[in-house]
Design brief:
Order of helices and strands of chain A: HHHEEEHEHHHEHEEEHEEEEHEEHEHEH
Oligomer: homodimer
Largest interface: A-B, 64 and 64 residues
Number of domains of chain A: 2
Number of strands of chain A: 16
Structural class of chain A: alpha+beta
CATH topology of the largest domain in chain A: Aminopeptidase
Low-confidence stretches of chain A: 1-10
CATH superfamily of the largest domain in chain A: Zn peptidases
Helix content of chain A: 25-40%
Number of helices of chain A: 13
Strand content of chain A: 15-25%
Radius of gyration of chain A: 23 Å
Distance between the termini of chain A: 12 Å
Chain lengths: ~425, ~425
């Protein structure tokens, strides 16, 4: 993963994927767990997930891949190269949120299969093996944490702890793996990739807004989620003078405004969101006794993210004191930022340009399986535009021509690194 | 209601109410619809309301009052005077909110009965008749609008429209009046009071905070309730740059902060409350697509209240435009301020002082039956302290000694105006 790789000429630079075949598989997988009116519900380790897995495993076998299932249910299909050793890997997930789209996750898996199919058709055997991975429970919608399969695969999460995780219905990951027949025999983490690529829809509006086809993803933002539970005093909205109020709702609102202020003042990639606000008793003429608010802070730079966290904590303390309310804060999630490998990023960027696509470097605001691989091997992601930035929504959509562009970039970067 | 009345010497200035008898009735009525752990649920026109009405009507008859029930279910008991004509009237309501206290409303009715009992025991016949009124559905918790009985009684609300009102379970006021046996034969509004007094718990913290026993209520604040329904764009909290957001939740929070700013800048009696805030989808990592917020503005001065309304409307327009969201606003309620009669306010104030109680003039932040009478006859209210300002809550509490003080003031002002 040095300049030698980056500057290597494309060996098969006229090779292209078959868009119809790829779109056919996306449509076919999208029928599994299909919702009326579009989109899918394919929550991890449900019967719909099993049907999706069966479909993908069937395709892998048709394509001649050697399929293994590990103990956390990750599926890996390997296409041999001239040499043995760690494969060049593409992968993502096929589980979805409850009202998910057809592309989030599935695109990365099915584009991987399309690379294999394209190589098969062209009769190419790469120097190094090629692998396609399907990782268990990336979404975290049914079992926490998210990125469970890839995190366990890459050693960041403990296997037994993950198997014992209870989902929203009380059953464990292990029980569900067994019931859908994907509690595999292969050890987890006994497998290393030479490098890892994930093609994914952006899930944000930047590429569309800037009319750019390919995002060369530089890393994944660090994420800080904090829940604030504010306890004030419920009182009559008409009879309580302003100076005697202890209004939990006011403090929740002040937190939301401060989040915006912090993001604006820190600038750059810093984002801040108050997505949850709940008042109790939530009546027009009653000062709120309790309020719940969450703050989601993200930055690619962990030092700036820490500054944002510290500013918010200080603001909440001062505002609570001034209003005479109690605030309990709880960290819901904290991930440090992940930087992808500079040479891999450069390879994606150069390949996109060589193929005639507009390209820009950008961070990922969302978490992805790739970030788990980034800790252990050179990793990069390829983003393609999401219509209106919409994701985790049945209206998620990416233009077929953008899917073609992303898959062609994936093909060429895998060829470049597999040679 | 001239200086002649105000300056008249008390005719029976040593006469006092019997606190034990009054507290006994408060306790007895409080058993009707009693909640476990204290407080009552006696929603208007329910079976609990009927039982409470039956109890009060029984007491009225025991006390020798001539009881009439009108078509909207108002109960009026009259004690004859030496002369015929419009009576001096005390009154309030016995319906409660779903988790109400023992004093809100009931105190005004039962103190009226206590005045009658005290006069009976002393063998006093006043020059003018004395009346005690119990008005239907003051709370508005089951049927909107509130102050239904007194508003209809005083001609502000239309009888047939009120009888046709449907409650939260879909049945009409008229059906419920009939089913509890309180669809009376007496015409509504055929009855005029010479003057009207309502003893009530403050439902706010001012008297307790200032250690004052009696509030001479100067009027009822004007009330303006507006609901804002904000429509933005739901998006990913990590992948959507701050500049591309249309965050409905942010606008709701900004409204809550602006409400506080308006109240602080206008000063005086101005209060402003955002008691309702709801976000959709209300998830930690999703920018809110929709938000609902209510603004409750109150002032004793309608011109200043209008200024507050105009400022909020302009702020919402500007903020919505800046954020790129749509806002629909809807007026939920609008009452102009009501001023009580200056000579009646002065009478309450002087009487409290003559009886040795601390007293202050103050507006009422909440609506009361008295405001409906104020349109047609000299009216005043007497406030007694609410512990911690708590009301519409099972923990509502007023010290018995404060109840005694308030009822003694009521006795003396009724005697003064009935002579």
């Amino acid at each position: 993963m040095t300049d030698a790789v980056k500057d290597a000429p494309m060996q098969y630079d006229n090779l292209r994927i078959d868009l119809d075949r790829l779109m056919g598989r996306i449509g076919h997988l999208g029928e599994v767990g299909a919702l009326e009116g579009g989109g899918v519900c394919r929550l991890a380790l449900t019967d719909e997930d099993r049907k999706g897995r069966d479909l993908v495993v069937g395709w892998m076998k048709e394509l001649g891949l050697k399929v293994t299932i590990d103990r956390i249910g990750n599926i890996v299909g390997v296409r041999p190269g001239h040499e043995n050793g760690a494969p060049v890997m593409a992968g993502s997930h096929i589980d979805s949120v409850a009202t998910g789209g057809l592309y989030d996750g599935s695109l990365g898996v099915l584009a991987g299969l399309e690379i294999v199919a394209t190589l098969n058709d062209a009769g190419i055997t790469t120097r190094r093996p090629i692998a396609v991975g399907v990782f268990t429970n990336e979404e975290g919608a049914r079992f926490a944490p998210d990125m469970m399969g890839s995190g366990t695969h890459q050693g960041s999460l403990d296997l037994q702890t993950m198997l014992d995780c209870k989902g929203i219905d009380g059953s464990t990951v292990e029980e569900n793996l067994q019931s859908i027949g994907y509690a595999g025999p292969a050890p987890v983490g006994g497998f290393h990739a030479r490098c890892f690529f994930e093609l994914h829809v952006e899930q944000g509006p930047i590429l569309e807004k800037e009319q750019i086809t390919i995002g060369a993803v530089t890393g994944v933002q660090g994420i800080s989620w904090t829940e604030y539970k504010i306890s004030g005093v419920s009182n009559h909205a008409g009879t309580t003078p302003m100076r005697l109020r202890h209004d939990a709702g006011y403090v929740a609102a002040a937190i939301a405004i401060e989040a915006r202020t912090i993001a604006r003042q820190l600038g750059g990639d810093q984002v801040a969101t108050v997505g949850v606000t709940e008042l109790t008793p939530n009546l027009v003429n009653v000062i709120a006794k309790e309020a719940l608010a969450t703050v989601d802070l993200r930055n690619t730079d962990d030092e700036i993210l820490k500054q944002a966290e510290a500013r918010m904590a200080a603001f909440v303390d001062a505002t609570a004191k001034a209003e005479g309310v109690e605030v309990q804060s709880r960290t819901l999630a904290r991930f440090v930022p992940v930087d992808f490998d500079p040479s891999m990023i450069a390879l994606v960027e150069k390949t996109a340009g060589d193929l005639g696509h507009t390209v820009r470097r950008m961070p990922s605001g969302a978490g992805h399986d790739a970030q788990m691989f980034a800790l252990n091997c050179p990793t990069a992601m390829i983003f393609v535009p999401s219509k209106a930035g919409i994701s985790h929504n049945v209206e998620e959509f990416t233009q077929p021509e953008d899917i073609r562009a992303g898959a062609d970039v994936l093909l060429q970067v895998m060829l470049a690194t597999a040679e």
